[in-house]
Amino acid sequence: MPVITNIEDLRVLAQKRVPRMFYDYADSGSWTESTYRANESDFNRILLRQRVAVNMENRSTRTRMVGQDVSMPVAIAPTGLTGMQHADGEILAARSAKKFGIPFTLSTMSICSIEDVARETGNHPFWFQLYVMRDRDFIERLIDRAKAAGCSALVLTLDLQIIGQRHKDLKNGLSAPPKLTAANILNMMSKPRWALGMLGTSRREFGNIVGHIKGVSDMGSLSEWTAKQFDPALSWNDVEWIKKRWGGKLILKGIQDTEDAQLAVNSGADALIVSNHGGRQLDGAPSSISALPDIVQAVGNKIEVHMDGGIRSGQQVLKAIALGAKGTYIGRAMLYGLGAMGEAGVDHALRIIHNELDLSMAFCGRTDINTVDQSILLPGTY
Question: Is 15 exposed, middle or buried (0-12, 13-18, 19+ CB in 10 A)?
């Protein structure tokens, strides 16, 4: 087993162990992937101020996200097809998040269902991410299922009314479960850990959808259904309807513009996530970290601001918090750990990010994450 020191080590191992179509699904963006790359690289221009001869004892990264205590300002982002990176992937990631004391967010397009995750984590509260689809009856029932499972927040994704083109998915013929072409069979045969895990589970389809919609009983009908169901007519009126139906904590994901941030405030949501969907939608859009400061300035304290996109280290979490985010999300960093080593890999990813956050905060002269602000950054670099 190689020595794992950072998230990149987990990525390299995941690439070796996960079939190409599913690894590429996680590790790609739309079109030229310029925004996908900028999400991570734009963090590099932001420099930290090192401080010395300060008391670094009794450090704490504990804080709150939408009123929930968290061990660090990090949540696991909703990622589709997580259960195809590793058998029962959503369950394993949720267990890891529970142990670490941070929120786990389950995607609508997960392999393990809402009920699977609730049951297998001992009904520990988690967050649920909702896509708005044309079938409003299904959406109502999905919200009700999240309520019944005890989900403590609803994350409403606003930036997937239509789906951006990701070239790798087209070339790989992405499907869940994978189509048994000669190329796919050969590739899966080279990933024995993954294959044995998938043979040992019955969860290989979209658990929140198959069996919950009339006429959708297999992957053939599901493909036809999803192609027609994402709703391009989504509006702020739908946000109001969903907020009322849900009745609990509501987080709006996919905000990149200050005007939309103001609309998010007006909607009465509890938080917004500055996000470009991991660079998977509008290629050429700004990175999340570059969009964050203007949005924080525009909304002030009227709504809690979170961000996701490009976070691969605790230092990047620290920079986002310094620029005004009250919470951050990791998607690919979690998926790399999951694909590399299952639940133990997610545990490892969370430990890496926490350790980097804790040490970097101390080197900047702070011992409490709640006191971090722009003063820990070198002026002119953000």
Answer: middle
